[in-house]
Structure formats: C-alpha cells, structure tokens
Amino acid sequence: MTPFALGRFSGLALDGPARLLFPLLVVMVLGACRDQTREHFIQGTALGTGYHITLYADLDHDQVAELEAGIEGELASLERQRSSFTRAFDAAFGEFRLSSTALRHEADRMTHALAVDRLALWLDDHRFALSAVLVEVGGVMRGHGAPPAGSWRLSLERTGLPAPDGARHVRIENAAIVHRFARQDVVPLVTLSTPLAVSVMAPSASQAMRQATQLMQAYPEDAVKLAEAMDSAARVVVKTPQGIEIHHTAALEPWLEH
Asked: What are the CA-CA distances from residue 110 to residues 50, 173, 205 (Å)?
C-alpha cells in the first residue's frame, strides 16, 4: 500500500515512493494532453483535386489561420500556372481537332507533385516551429519529421486490387510517395502482361512522380529491371495470364512495415 503522511499544509501529502511517482504521473498526463492539442488538420480543394495537411506544432487558432492563408496563397499561385498551361494545351490541340485530355491528366499529376513539394518546403521554412508535417495533394504525399506515434504509416494498397502478400504499409520520414495506376479504360482484357500500378518512394514528390511515370510507361517485363537500375524504392503490380504479380525492389524493403 502506498504510504501517506501529513504535510505542512492541510490535507494529505504523498510520502515515500509515491512522492516520486506522483510528479511523474502528472508529467505523463500533461504530455498526453499536450500531444492531442498539437495535432492540426488543414484541408480544402485546389488544382482540380483535394488536399489534406496534418501537422504537429504548438499553435493557437490565429496561427493556424495564418498557415491556412499562406497555404491557400501558394496553391492559388500554382492554380494560375495550371490554368495557363491548360489554355495552351487546349489551343494547341484544338488547331488539329485533337483531345488534350491525356496530356492534361499527366500535367495535373506533375502539378500535384510540385504542389506537395512546394507546400512541404514552405511549411518547413515557416517561422512557426512545426515538429512534423504530412502533405497530400491528389494522392501524392510527402512527410517531414515524425509524429508523436513515430514515422508516418501509409498504405501501399488500393481498394479492389488483389494483395496476395497481405495489406502492406510503409513508414516514411522526410520522404514522398507517389502511386500511379493504369487507366481502367485502356487496360486490355486479353494481354500477355500489363502494368496495373506503381508506387515509388523518393526524397521529393517530383522525383517520385518522374520515376513512377517512367515505370508505368515501360514494358511490363522491363519495369522491375528499370526500377532496380534506377535504384528506385518501388512496388510494381503487373497483370499476367497467370494472375497478379507484385514486385518490391530492394530499395523499398527498408521502408516496408514487417
């Protein structure tokens, strides 16, 4: 039983081991409350998609509002550039009565990666001390620092995609991850081999996007070899006559959750 003794003031005072245990418990409780109040979420729509930002920092309401305004300003600048490119694509392809949809889709994907990098660096350089940040725009993600629970835990799976090796996750810190998926309307029903999806991790979202795009455009039998040659931390999913094959490069292994 924990001993108690009368203190100098009215009431009971802790004595013995309890004298040391009680302050420790107070610190733990306050620390837990502090972690809960330090998590902030900022989200919205821009660049034809949605964005979500999770950050950990000691911020009050006004400081969060200041960050939101700055983020919206950065995205608005990119939106103006995107609109200029879109008009240029439409004008150029319109001259030949061609559709610019595919090119605009690729341009949007690159813009999303650029936005993730730009926001991540902007937040990292901000005067507010942010201990950890995860930026996501259109499915492209980049994490800086580590949240209280550890590194950022992200899924490699997609709903409806078979996963014979089980649901896999990666844990990232100061890195980005990009997923590229084959358009379902262009995947042939009968084929020897077809790439279905690629996931790539790299220091920046733009770098990961470039590598993922190269792998999606490669011949299926060459995609894994190309990923290894680029020392890319990649996951390549290929549809074959025998079924779905999932390949992980050696560079991805350290990031995988086992």
From this structure: 15, 22, 9
